[in-house]
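PT: before anyone asks, these are the final sequences, not the draft ones from last week. 797 residues across everything. Please model them as a single complex and drop the result in this thread when it's through.
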Amino acid sequence: MAAIRQFPADISRAAQFSVLGTTKGPFGEEVRDLAGVVASRLLSRWNGTVDKNPPNLDLVRDFDEECTRAGLAQLFSEASDGGEGSESLAASAIRGFAEADGGIAAIFLARLAAVLPWVQGSVEVPVVDGWSTAWSGGSRPDVVWAWGWRDGLPITVCVPGEGSAWRLQLLPAQHLGSVEVHQRMGLRACPSAWVRVHLGEPMASIEVGRETIARWRSLVAGWWAVIALARGRAALSEAVRYASVRYQGGALLIEHPLVQEMLGRAFEAVVAAEALLTRGFSGDASSLAAGTSLATQASERAAHTAQQVFGGYGYMRDYPVERCLRDVKMAAVAAGGSARLRVATAHAVCAAEGVHLPDKGEGVSLGSAG
Amino acid sequence: MGAEGWSARLGERLFERFERAREGGRAPRYSAALQRLAEQVQGFAREAEPLVVAADEEASLAQGVEIARELLRRAARAGWLTRFLPGWVGGQAGVAALQQRGRLPMLIFVEELAAVSPGLATLLGAHYLGAMPILLSFDFAAQRRILRPLCAALQAGEPAICAFAITEPEAGSDVEDPVGGKRARLGTTARRVAGGYVLKGRKCFISGGNLARVTTVFAALEPEKSLRSWTCFAVPMDTPGVEVVRVEDKMGQRVSPAAELYFDEVFVPESYRVGPEREGWRINRATLDLSRPFVGGMALGAARTVLHEGVAWAAKNGLMHDRFFQHEIARLLGSYAAARALVVRAVEVVPPMTELSAMAKFVATDTAMRIVSQIMDWMGVEATLRSSRVERLYRDIRLTQIYEGTNEINRLAVFEHGQPRSWADSF
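LR: through. Structure below.
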C-alpha cells in the first residue's frame, strides 16, 4: 500500500510513531497525549480567538505547521491507511485534540477525511504545505462546503462518476473560485467555507463504488462523534466541579440525589458510547454505526445536563459549558444528525445479518456536509 | 317532497359543507380581534428583526444595549409596553388585565414576538414581569404611585421599563424553590430606617436591569430567616447607590440584556415597598405562577417558526412526500400541539395554579428544544450557520429551559403545595 510519503524534512518526531501500530488505552494514549499538547500550545497562543466568528485563519496555518513539526502529519497517512489499528489511532488523535478544543479537533478531522480516499486508494498525491488538503462535501457540484479550508490548499471533492460510482478529485487551489467563509454556531476554530470549484484538470482522481463511500462516510461520522463525546464529557466534568462547590438549599449541589441522577444518566450514556465506538474503530461496522448514533445523543444530553446543573451561569459565555453545547450540537449535525445516524445503524446491522439495504445516494457528502 | 327526501337533501348539503371545511383544513386560531392583535405584533416583530439580528451578531455588548434601547423606544411608541397594563395606571388593558380575557392576548403577544425572536419577547416581556409584583400586591395606591409616571413616560416614547430582580449570585434556584429556599442564606437585605428601608446586596441575570427605570427587588428583612422575611421593593434606578455592575455575555437572546445590579446602601421610601413586609415570597410566587406559561408560549412561538423552516426546507429538497420525513414532522407537530394546548389551559386558569404553570413551562420549553434540535439535525450543517434563523432560535430557545427556574426546579414546583391539587379537574 502506497501512502503519502512526500513530507518535508522536518518530521523527526514522526519517527516516534513507528511504534504506534499498537494502541494503548481506548484510543491510543500516546497519540492522544501528543494531540493534547499541540492543542494546548495553540490555545495558549491564540487564546480568545478560537471561539470567534469569522474564524481565525492564522490559527489554521499555525495548526498545520504545528502538526507537521510534531509529526502528526505523518500520522495522517498512517491513521487513515486502513491498516490494523489505524482507525483507533485516528480517533485517539481526534480525541486528544477535542479534549482541549472541539474546533481544533475538527481541523484535524478535516485533514484526515481529505487524505483518506487517496491513502486508502493507494494514490500518490502531491503534498502542499506539509501534507494536507481541505475536505469537502456538498450536494451542489459547483459549490462545495469545504471543512478546514484555508487559502492555498487543494480540495478533495466528490462528484458523481460512472453508473453508481463516485469520482473523487483533488482540485488545486488555483482551480477554486469564490470563497465564502462561514460563521457557524460551534467548533469555530475550524474554518469552513462555500467554495466555487472548477472541475477538470485535477491533481489526482479516483473512482470508487458506493459501498466504499458509505464505509468512509461511516468512519468520518464516527470521528465527528468522537469530537462530540469529548466535548460532552468535558461539559460533565465542568458540571461536577461546579456542583461540588455550589450550594442549593443549604447543601452542595452534588449532594442532591436529583443532580446525582442527572449526572449519572448522562455519564452512563457517554461511557457506553465510548465503549461502543472503541469497538467500532477496531473494525466492527455495526458497532461503529451504533456507537456514532449513541455518541451524538449521549453528548448532546451530557452538554445539556451540564448546562442545567450550572443554571443561569451555564448560559453565560464566561463559563465553558454553553460552548460545549454549541460544539457538541455542531459535531452531531456534521456526523449526520440523529435520524440519519439511526438509519445508518440499521444499514450496518442489516448488512451484518446479510441483508443489504439500498443506499439512497448520500455518498456525495462524507458525513453531512450539505 | 316527503320528509324523507327533504332530510336526505339536508344531510347531503351538510355533509358537503363538512367535507369542504375539512378539506380547507384550518381551524381559526383566534377570534377576529385576537387575530388582528396577532397580525399587529407580527408586523412590529418583523420590522424589529434586522435589529435583533444585528444585536445577535458579534456586536459588542454596548452596541447590543443600544439596540435594545432603540427597540424599547419603538415598542413604547407603538403602545406595546402599556397595552397589557390596567387603565388605572395609564395602561390600555382595562380591569381584565389579570383575568382570563387579559391573559390570552398577552400569550399571543409573547408568542408572536418569539416567533421572530425569543430575545425580543424577553426584552419586552421582562417589563411586564417587573410590573407584575406591583399589580399582584393589589395595593392600588402604590400601583398608581409607581406605575403611572412610567406609563406616562412610555406613552411619550421613552423606554421607561420595569425589571424584576430575584436571582442572586449565590442564590439561583434557591429563590425559586420554597424547600431549598428555607435553608438558603440570601445576600440582599433590607434594613428598616426612618421613613423607609436601606437595601444592600447584589442581584444577577436581571433582564432589562441595566435599562429599567424601576426594578422590583426582593430583599430579606432578617437574613437568618431567609425567604420567610422576603419583602418586595420598587427601586427607582436613579436612586443613589444603585449600580449596574455588568451586562452578561450570553449564548443567545442577545438582544435582551441581562445585568448584574449592586445595591449599595440604597434608601427606598416606605411608599415604595410593594405589599406588606415579609410577603415577598407570596408575591414572587404569584408573579412566577402567572408568568411561567408565557415562557412556555415564547418557546413554542419560536418552535413554530422552526417547524415552518423545517417544512420549507423539506419542500425545497423534495422531501414532503417522503413517508419517513412525514412521520418525523408529524411527531414534532403532535408534541407542539399538545404542549400549546397545555400552555393555553394554564393561561386560562385564573388565578394561575402553581402546578399547571410549572408544567406548562417545562413541557413547552422541553418540547420546543426537541423540535429545534431535531429540525437542525434534519437540515444539516446549513442550519448551523449564523445566517440561519434556526441556529439563532436554537440558542434562544435554550434559555427558556433555564430562566424562571430551571425545568428541574419547575418539576419540583408541581409538589410545592404538597399533593398536586385537583389533577384531573384542571385539564
